[in-house]
Amino acid sequence: MRVAIAEDGALFREGLVLLLEAAGHEVAGCFSDGEQLIAAVATDPVDVAILDIRMPPGPNGGLVAAERVRALHPDIGLLLLSHYAETHYLMRVLEIGAERIGYRLKERVAGVQVLGDTLDRIAAGEIVIEPALARRLVQGSAGQDDGAIGKLTERETDVLRLMAEGRANNAIAQELFISAKAVEKNIASIFTKLGLPGDATVHHRRVLAVLAYLQAQRIDGSVR
To answer: Are 68 and 38 in contact (CB under 8 A)?
Structure first.
């Protein structure tokens, strides 16, 4: 796929170029800030844009640029990168969109296989959340006795955690060593316990499930 990069760190930026080319992708543009990337994709569309969250202009320039790219070019996939797994960044990412978007740690995508898998899932329309952050949030929510999240069984909590990581049903089944039908039953139970609307699409309800436990955390800071 064709990929554009906006990253103000020259060393990491060049490293991404090498990883992408090694994975067989075409780097359509490489920029030091979001404004340059926005201008470039306006005339030369790409499949996915990779943006550093903390870069010029402003402290969260990557998020601002991602919002503008999504508004102007909704078909372009977005991968937001950060050194830290911070929940307020995740909430901003979810506000930008719940399809063709990802939030990963820089250290975790510093390999051809992980980066390639992340881009493939984003291009396929998925939302990809850093596993470490999803795991901490779900585990923290599961420990609460009040609210719908606290009513989930241990197995349902495991399924929700993997849903939060953006995993499809088959991938969840493989991870938990259960059948795909068992995954479907657990997801249906999660939807029921969280009171999610039955008339929503399955994908939309999956995103609502992720938002449910995020809101249950009542987070006003960051998790590292």
So the answer is: yes
Residues (pLDDT < 70) of the chain are 134-147, 166, 197-204, 207, 210-224
What pLDDT is attached to residue 211? 67
Which two three-digit tokens encode residue 177? 């060593």
Note the Cα 1 to chain centre separation in Å.
19
Q: Three-state SS for 102?
A: strand
Contact indicator for 194, 150 with CB cutoff of 8 Å = no
3-state helix, strand, coil in the chain (%, to 5): 55, 15, 30
The answer to whether residues 55 and 34 touch, using CB atoms and an 8 Å cutoff, is yes
* Residues whose CB is less than 8 angstroms from the CB of residue 71 and which lie 6 or more positions away in sequence, other chains included: none
Report the pLDDT value the prediction gives residue 139, as an integer from 0 to 100.
58
189 in Cβ contact with 171 (< 8 Å)? no
| pTM greater than the 0.85 cutoff | no
- Please spell the DSSP secondary structure of 60-101, one letter per residue: THHHHHHHHHHHH-TTSEEEEEESS--HHHHHHHHHH-SSSE
Question: Per the structure block, which two tokens stand in for 180?
Answer: 């795909």
Q: Residue 27: beta bridge partners?
A: 3
